[in-house]
Each structure stands twice: as C-alpha cells, then as structure tokens.
Write a structure and sequence with these properties.
Strand content: 5-15%
Order of helices and strands: HEHHEHHEHEHEHEHHHH
Helix content: 55-70%
CATH class: Alpha Beta
Number of domains: 1
CATH topology: Rossmann fold
Number of strands: 6
Distance between the termini: 39 Å
CATH architecture: 3-Layer(aba) Sandwich
Radius of gyration: 20 Å
C-alpha cells in the first residue's frame, strides 16, 4: 500500500495544494485494519492506490514502515488532519461539508466547527442506503464545498467516494472515521501518553468492546502476521541476491 511519508504539517501543505488545484481528489488513512481489508479485497486496494493523499493513521503502520526499512516520519490521524484543516478553512474561507455519524452528532459537529469560524456549506448524517446515494451526492454537489469530510465506516467510505468523487463537486474528500463522535463529545479520545505509545486503539476497544473486538484484536493480529511474512520474504530475497552476487564475483 502506498503511504505518503508526511508529517501533519506536510500533509496540511499537500491537502491545501490539492484544494487550491480544484480537484476532485480523495484522501484516505491507513491503519492495521484497513491494510488487512485491502489485502483481502483487491478493489479496496485499487481505490487506496488511486488516492491523491494517503496518511498513516495507525501507529502500527508507522512501526511496520520502520521495520521494513521505509520509515514514515509520524502518524497523521484523521481527526488531527480534520481539525487542522478546519483552522485553515476558517483562515481561507473554504466551504466545508460534513457527511456521516448519527443526526445529532453531525449536527453538533457542524455547530462546533461553525463556532470555530468554519464556513459550513452543509451536513448530513451517515444513515442512508445505496438507493439514496444519488440524493446524498446531489445534496453535496448543490452545497459546492471545497472540502468534504466523510465519517462513515470503512470500506463503505472508500467505495462511496471512489464511485461518486467526480459527481460530488468538492475539491478534496477527506475520510475521518469516527472523528465527529469525538468532536461532539459522544466518545472520548485517548490521553496524549496513550497516543504517543501507540495505544489509542486500546482506548477505543475499552469504549466499544463489542464493535471493535474483531477490528483490533483479530485485525491487529492478522496485520502482524502479514508484516512478519513480508519481512521474511524480503530477507530471503536479499540473502538469495547476496549469494548470487558472491557466486558471480567468483566467476
């Protein structure tokens, strides 16, 4: 999977360049669960590879990148990028559309963003089925936002954006997972020390054990096994290439 080796500041600069260009562009974050999903779903993998901005949301992805010799500078979470883009939107006058979460949550998130100076072009909850896709797309397109923040589960979010990106009329679509719940105060975020230690997933598992068990416990184990297998294959290839090189030198 491609991941841009960017800090939060670098991601902000890249996102702003995409917005100013006019788009449409799609952003995605990668964590252990999504890597596993993409490994098992070639269509999701293709969508991720097509995105213009890919951030490492999970600390496990950062650790894996270091183990595999292609170190990423830091973790850039969806919520951190969203809040930073809100500040930039308030400064630049970018229009923002919020799509996802429960009706009361997205409404509260829109109110909080507006209080921070963000120009809210519109908002809608994340409870619709595929028969209503065109209604949702039309509502976003009519609002003409510069930035669309999408807080619906993966891989539904990635499939929706890939399918309708050209019709949505936004410059940049940003996937933000459960960020609206945190902003609205429905769910707390892990303390700073847990985030630094890469334990934010554990904090969320404690809050939502039934919903998150498979994603974090099963998914993270699967991710570790995938990384270990990839590392072993790379090491084996390097050993084979080294042996061939020595043999060639002997001739």
């Amino acid at each position: 999977m491609p991941v841009h080796p960017l800090t939060l500041e670098g991601s902000m600069a890249a996102a702003e360049a995409l917005i100013e260009d006019g788009g449409p562009y799609q952003h995605v974050v990668l964590n252990a669960a999504k890597v596993v999903q993409a490994h098992e779903d070639p269509d999701l993998a293709r969508i991720i590879r097509s995105c213009s901005l890919v951030n490492a949301d999970g600390q496990s992805v950062v650790w894996a990148s270091r183990l595999l010799g292609q170190a990423l500078p830091e973790r850039v979470t969806g919520i951190d990028l969203m809040l930073a883009l809100w500040r930039r939107a308030a400064e630049k006058g970018y229009g923002v559309y919020l799509l996802g979460a429960e009706p009361s949550v997205v409404e509260a998130t829109a109110r909080i963003a507006a209080e921070q100076g963000v120009k809210i072009a519109g908002y809608r909850d994340g409870y619709w089925d595929e028969t209503q896709d065109q209604q949702v797309v039309a509502a976003v397109r009519e609002a003409r936002p510069d930035i669309l923040f999408v807080a619906v589960p993966s891989p539904r979010k990635e499939y929706f954006l890939a399918r309708y990106l050209e019709q949505l009329g936004c410059a940049l679509a940003v996937g933000v997972g459960g960020s609206f719940d945190v902003v609205a105060g429905v769910r707390s975020r892990a303390p700073e020390w847990m985030r630094r230690a890469g334990l934010e997933w554990f904090h969320r598992l404690i809050q939502e054990p039934r919903r998150m068990f498979r994603r974090y416990v099963v998914g993270n184990t699967r991710f570790v096994l995938l990384v270990a297998a990839y590392w072993a294959r790379r090491r084996s290839r390097r050993s084979a290439n080294s042996a061939q090189g020595r043999s060639g030198t002997g001739h």
